[in-house]
Amino acid sequence: MVNSNTNSVFPDQVVPDAEKMSLDYGLKVGRAVEGEWFSSGRTRFSDNYTRFHNLRLYARGEQSIQKYKDELSINGDLSYLNLDWKPVPIIPKFVDIVVNGMSDKVYDIKAFAQDPSALKIRTNYAEHLYRNIKQKDYINQVKQSLGIDISDIENPDLAPQTEEELSVHMQLDYKQSIEIAEEEAINNTLERNRYELSKRRILRDIVTIGIGANKTEFNKSEGVVVKYCDPAAMIWSYTEDPNFEDLFYVGEVKSLTLPELKKQFPHLTVEELKEIEKYPGNSQYNRNWNGRRDNNTVQVLYFEWKSYTNQVFKIKETPFGLEKALEKQDTFDPPPSDNFNKVTRSIEVLYSGAKILGHEKMLKWELAKNMTRPKANLVKVNMNYNICAPRMYRGRIDSLVGRITGFADMIQLTSLKLQQVIQRVVPDGVYLDADGLAEVDLGNGTNYNPAEALNMYFQTGSIIGRSMTQDGDLNHGKVPIQELQSSSGGNKIQSLIQTYQYYLQMIRDVTGLNEARDGTVPDKQSLVGLQKLAAANSNTATKHILQAELFLTLRACENIALRISDCLEFDLTREALRSSISSFNVGTLEEMYNLHLHDFGIFLELEPDEEEKALLEQNIDRALQTQSIYLEDAIDIRQVKNLKLANQLIKLRRKKKAKADQEAQQANIQAQAQANADQAEKAAMNEVQKQQALSESNIQFEQAKSQFEIQRMEREAQIKAQQMEQQFKYDMQLKSADINKDKEKEQLIEDRKDKRTRIEGTQQSQMIDQRKNNTLPIDFESPYKVDVGEFGV
Predict the structure, then answer these.
(1) Rounded distance, CA 360 to CA 280, Å?
(2) pTM of the model
(3) Cα separation, 501 vs 517, whole angstroms
(4) Are residues 175 and 253 in the same domain?
(5) Which of 151, 223, 441, 755 has its CA 20 to 30 Å from the CA of residue 349?
(6) Is 599 helix (H, G, I), strand (E, B) or coil?
(7) Within-domain flag for 156
(8) Residues β-bridged to residue 387
(9) Boundary of a domain, candidates 365, 397, 429
(10) Is-contact 7 27, C-beta < 8 A?
């Protein structure tokens, strides 16, 4: 970029590194930067600041009302106008719609380890799964034949079964622990720096002024820091790249008090501070941009300047045949020698500077510390500032608010005109013809005066008049009271309202923010799908804003990933990072110490928009209706943010379920056939068992019958024997009784015989005695005759 200001000429970069690091060289760079942005008169910085300030006022509904007063005044005279000059807040509504609609997190930060070590681990894992897929049949045969599972996979059922499943598995499910640790470190850094709040401010800047910026830096006390940057206070080298990737210097202006200045730059002496404080240029043009004019504030320009350095190495061969590299100064230029070789390479470097605006004083100039370099390209260096202006052309920045400020001005003027018309509207009146009233006689002696006529008219709506005068002439005042139709301004009001709606619609047309985006005027006849489609079309019109914010987030995450390696080099920041990561996943703590050994690719996994979600949901619903997938599959598919992978996952789950259904159907057929065979076999076995049971039952019956017959015969024999024994006993008893009876009979006969013998002897004795004594005759039949033998007489 050509600049007529001689102060904007940058010093020659083809100089030794020692000269570049000198404070005088840094002062030349600072003068050149200041000359491009803060030259006398209307400057590039003031143009940017003024334009951005005015756009921000429009975005807040606080724009200047002077232009509206100039439009409505007559030679500057506003004495006849009594209007509310407060701006109509139309633009803030549209800004809030865009910012609030995009402020939600619609992405996940993903880290992909792309260094050789991680790629080897990923490749070995994929080859391991691929080998098991190819050997699946052999593994199943061995398992069926020998009952041994020779697979070395922990969960064979969850492992991919086909090459297509393996491809999806590697993209969706596979994650190395080092990648998880990197993602958690990035998320933790963003949360610790409250990046969500900064992101809202960046989004509002992109919508309002068309440019957004953030900054990543590292210090030993806070670790990795992500800051919001105000583009109105920033400077950058001329570029036509919307992503500002070809800058060679960038910086920002900060307002510092003298105590803050001394704290940041303790090497400043008291004399230098006094000189800075009283410098007249410090209060003439440098303090106007922030509205502060106190003598206690200093405007400091912080900037980064990209240059290059030559790395020179002396390659010397050792006595053992090895080569040793010794780093030398870039001025090292010895004569050719057989003992060593000279090797050089050029790499980009950043110089960090700080200069007081309007003062020939460099506060700092040094080679930047902790420069972020992509590990895939170590000769390149990243700026700490990330800037994006998605609608920039040849250095001119366009914004959403900038497109509609003209229409907002017309809406404001229309509103003011509408106030004028409303103020000038007068109520309707009545016309009263006094001559017509004079000809009217009420007939009751009461005068029909104007007051009485008006009272009757306003209370009853009736009036009294005469068509003829008292002289018989035509009375021109026969209707003494007539209503006056004043100009109400209705047509003007309606016209202004239509004009207001026209410019409002123009704002919608220019920005693409239709009614469906904010839901202000939903059409009751419109289907929900059509409303969502209209909102999706509105999102398409503002998609560049979201892409710009995502670009800044991605660049910030890339710088964070590179600066985490710096955190691991210091004990304090390493332990702080380790402690903060422990709140996420303790299992990844051991991997933190190895992050600096890996190279990561950072990308954002975006959620699909409403239209893509609708298409995906249609596919899922169709698959569920046809029972091609399970409900669990639908839940898993909805969690996939990549639409292509989600559709591919639907295909895999459909194939898997179809295969499972086919196997289940075949298994059912086989099970049914087996069940039928088992049932037939079981019926045959039942029949055999039945016949066998019948035979056994018959045999058992016959055996029981025979046994019963034997038992019966034995019982009969036993009973017969008992009967015979009992009969024998009875016979013996009878025989014994007969014998005893005979014995008793004989005994009785003998006893009777012996008794008779005794009686006969006794009687003979008595008869002998009777004869001897000549006693009375004895009657031996007398019952009183005593038996001498019985009494022992």
Answers:
(1) 12
(2) 0.71
(3) 17
(4) yes
(5) 223
(6) coil
(7) yes
(8) 213
(9) 397
(10) no
